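(Fold this chain)
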Amino acid sequence: SPMPNKSLVRATLTNKEAGLCLIWATLQQLVVAASTYFIIEAIQHITENRFAMAMQFSAAFVASLVVVFLPNTISVVYLQKWQFRSFRLFVEAFIKENCGLTTWAHSREKSRFESWLTNESSLVYRHATDILYQAYSILISSVLNILVISVAIDKRIIGWYMAAAAVLFVSNMVFQKRIKRVSLEEQRARKDLGNVMLLAWENIFTGNRHCLENWKAKFIDSLALAGRSTVAYDLNRSLISSATVSLALLVIALGNGIYLFENQTNLPMVAGLLITLPRQLQIIQNIFAFFNTYLSWLGVVSQLKELTAIIGLARTPRDLQTYIQWPSLSFSDTESATTGEKRFDSLRGFLNDLGQRESGRLTLRGNNGSGKSTLLSLVAETTGEASFYLPSNFTDLAFSDANLMNYSDGNRVLAVFREMNGLSGVKIVLLDEWDANLDCANLELVDAAITELARSKIVIESRHRA
């Protein structure tokens, strides 16, 4: 498969909504850090009998506890917008890269890759934005609070936390590859489960016991694999982060112990440190959460790269003409003055013949497996927006008529033809076994509609019953 597109990951995740979300998250954490500073100052002023100043800082502390909810709420709102914008950018990139590559719509390719687009993409992008938001908020909160405590208490506190950060960095270097590996295993197992679930509807509702039992066996196996891989991913992250943060905690505890020993007779300094202990405990918890979140981010980055790799998958070079059995295919020109069948020996020859036509109806005939559908797909890819390809099963295609799926088979096809007839710029209409599910009465109606359509466009059809 193609190499993952790193720039695409950045392009989809960096947008205006992301910037606004992180700006408001920064404002939120600035207020939180200010509250730490206010309470430290209040306690120190109280221990030094400056009650007026202590009350002012206490009032500022209380106000910060109220004000913080505003930027927090706005940042969460923009987080949701960020998630949907990033997902939209991914889908638009997928459309741009793959629009019109009709041969990849084959059921064989669809069953392998459909769940990546329909299920996995939205899940991964939602997870990615959540992790980035959490990691950024935790990081900025910890840094700001460490700076405030260091300025107010002892500048050496920065050194203690930098030593703890070094422990985290070394652990990351050691376990990075392992986290990425178990993350990809989880994603692939989840994707396989998604592929199985895409088959659930037909197998459950059709009522064929044999098929249902086969599907259930695949479902149970894929569910068990997805469960095991998810547990392995979470367990690895938890064990690695717990052990690493425990070491970092020892470094910070040692630094605080040294400070208390040195200032055991200095009441304001001891009071200042003691009042910061809950905040330092929160910072330590944040360090644990940040490292765990960062390990999750390593996994999500791998999943994003795996996801974006499928965008270019349809550009993989393939020579599908080898699947077309040209000697077995014939074309009857029902609108030509000369009757009889035509045969071609290559796609180029067939396209050259089409280039000489303004309208008409060509019926493609050949044995099953001779490449009729492949030929129609290749013509659609080659002619691009000048053609309209209607596969045999077109129930998933979006048309202007919102009630289309409520019509009978015959009326549904007729409604589609009415829309196609009004499409400007479309010169070629490709119909793949349009008669597969129609009764005799509807066959005649649709056949007449195709004849009418062929007066203004080139219609190339393969017939199920011909």
Notes: DSSP finds 13 helices and six strands in the chain. The longest helix spans residues 209-262.
